[in-house]
Specification:
This protein is of the alpha+beta class. It is about 40% helix and about 20% strand. Strand 8 and strand 9 form a beta hairpin.
């Protein structure tokens, strides 16, 4: 990459005042700003060049995707400047909606040739700032690509474009006796879930995205299109070459834009039973969860919720659950198998000081059992009007889970910040949901400090700083601590695939 282009790509969004689209002479405004005095002349020259050619770039992208699918409207830029996280919002330069992989490739190639950063954008449901622009980027929104392109029920696989969400896919599959079990909560897009390495409540039995993606179609930073397992390949396993598929799963848009994903499907179970129970302490509840996993019971879901969250959901949803630590469980299988599993777990609950064990079989009754768990986020937000959520995301070996959650509760209480804890405890993943005043920098910093303490405790217990949310902007320093020398290999891969550092820059590494 030439020096001029490289240095220009490092400009902070806050410096690019012209992106407000309210400046008559944006290059002059920039040149007169205090910060411009500190930038090398090559940066200023490149900035002037980009400003001068900006309309030409919009016209060229419009020729590829249609002028109606290119926007610089302030409301559109604002909508695409953030995800669901607390991270500072920065406007992209323009938003583009391609409708085909070829269009994505052509837009990417235009950006590559002009040294302009690109940010892939799906449903915007991430929580680590993964789609937040940090440079004068072209935001490539892939949600117009909504086709389920291939569905092989007999082989239990399906291929989807990036605009297809997991809920939309399961709605399409509901009459075929199969489903896609990875459920991150929000109605995220499946290719976005692949990009972040997402998981969810069913992970303990069905695995996360890394275990459920067979093949990916990816547009690389120079516009080249590849299939990570080979064109049209959909075998359930392969020893052919390097595992490129899982290189891109979890890459968070920093290595390319996923334009198609081939996924594994599962048979809809004959019987589903749900249960809930309550415990006097966090140790009792989490120990019961760990013992359930160790027993070999093929449980589908096992979710923890602390007493503060139960209290909040009781108030929000008019429930009458005991205000104590809770486990929500789900069993999949034949009718005889699920009933047997329920009976065994009920005995485990009693042996771990649990009580109020109840189970449900019908869809309506199961929904009622799970209501508190599903309403937790909204319940905590209702307890803190005007505040914003900050959610941690650590994962530890299940034998260390009681210690990790106990520590998280301790430091959260010491901070006096409002905090509820929930967890996909079957696989050692849990979240602390803080609420903070976004207008109070000191409160945000305190929240960050507590979250870092919780993450470092997880690392000390042989765990990870993120089980499913990804690194994005929020956990880059923690990734350095977690990966040590392996981070150099990651950086080498990034430089090899994206030598100009144009693809979702400043994220992960």
């Amino acid at each position: 990459m030439d020096v001029e282009g490289k240095e220009a790509s490092s400009l902070a969004q806050s410096d690019l005042l012209w992106l407000s689209h309210d400046v008559e002479d944006p290059s002059q405004t920039f040149l007169n700003s205090e910060r411009a005095k500190n930038h090398p002349k090559s940066e200023i020259a490149s900035f002037q060049s980009l400003t001068k050619n900006f309309q030409n770039m919009i016209d060229r992208m419009g020729a590829v995707v249609g002028s109606q699918n290119v926007s610089t409207a302030s409301s559109t830029l604002e909508q695409h400047s953030h995800d669901e996280s607390y991270h500072r919002r920065q406007l992209p330069a323009v938003v583009v909606w391609p409708s085909t992989t070829q269009q994505v490739s052509e837009v990417v190639r235009l950006c590559y040739d002009e040294n302009i950063a690109m940010v892939p954008y799906g449903t915007g449901t991430g929580v680590e700032g993964g789609v937040t622009s940090t440079q004068n980027a072209v935001c490539i929104n892939v949600t117009n690509m909504k086709q389920i392109t291939r569905c092989h029920i007999e082989d239990f696989d399906v291929t989807v474009q990036p605009g297809v969400t997991w809920k939309a896919l399961n709605k399409h599959l509901k009459d075929y006796g199969v489903w896609f079990p990875v459920d991150p909560g929000s109605d995220a897009s499946l290719c976005g879930m692949a990009a972040t390495g997402a998981s969810g409540t069913n992970t303990v039995r069905y695995g996360n995205m890394k275990g459920n993606v067979i093949n990916l179609e990816v547009v690389l930073p120079d516009g080249k299109i590849i299939n990570t397992a080979g064109p049209n390949r959909r075998a359930k396993k392969s020893s052919a070459g390097y595992n490129l598929t899982n290189l891109f799963v979890g890459s968070e848009g920093t290595l390319g834009i996923i334009t198609s994903a081939t996924l594994k499907l599962q048979a809809v179970p004959e019987s589903i039973l749900s249960a809930v129970c309550f415990f006097p302490t966090v140790e009792d509840s989490v120990t019961c969860a760990v013992n359930t996993i160790r027993s070999g019971i093929p449980i589908a879901r096992i979710e923890y919720m602390d007493e503060k969250s139960v209290d909040a959901t009781n108030k929000f949803s008019n429930l009458t659950n005991p205000v104590s630590h809770s486990l929500f469980l789900e069993f999949h299988g034949s009718e005889n198998a699920t009933r047997e599993q329920v009976d065994i777990v009920e005995e485990m609950v009693k042996s771990n000081n649990g009580s109020n064990f109840s189970w449900a079989a019908t869809q309506k009754a199961r929904n009622k059992v799970w209501q508190a768990r599903h309403d937790m986020h909204y319940a905590h937000m209702a307890q803190s009007p005007g505040k914003k959520a900050y959610t941690t995301d650590v994962c530890v070996p299940i034998s260390h889970l009681p210690e990790a959650i106990t520590y998280a509760r301790q430091v959260a209480d010491e901070s006096a910040l409002p905090c509820g804890i929930l967890g996909h405890v079957g696989d050692g993943n849990f979240h602390c949901m803080f609420t903070f005043d976004p207008s109070d920098p000191a409160e945000l910093q305190k929240t960050k400090d507590v979250a870092v303490k919780i993450a470092r405790k997880a690392l000390a217990l042989d765990g990870t700083s993120t089980g499913e949310h990804g690194i994005g902007l929020g956990k880059k320093e923690l990734l350095i601590e977690e990966m040590d020398e392996a981070l150099d290999v990651m950086r080498s891969i990034k430089r090899m695939i994206d030598p100009k550092n144009l693809m979702n820059p400043d994220k992960v590494l």
